[in-house]
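Can anyone check this?
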Amino acid sequence: MLKIVAAFAATISLAAAAVAADKNATADPVDAPKKEKKLCRAQVATGSIMEKRICHTRSEWDAIDRQNNANAQNALDYVNRNQGPAVTR
């Protein structure tokens, strides 16, 4: 009976070691891509007083900001090109 208990305990300890080794093998942070943290901004739509939270990653916000700046610059360039001569009195 003592031999059976010892054999059972040895089997359990080997199984636990195998499970621990398997967890360490799959939890390798080098292979897993890093998840970016989401950043939220509050936006108020025109004609509304309620703000809406919009969440994106830092890289997505950077791309959105670059596009918004380019759009604003294009609008200013268009107005400056098409304004014509100033009216004087």
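Reply from J.R.: I decoded it. Strands lie at 38-44, 51-57.
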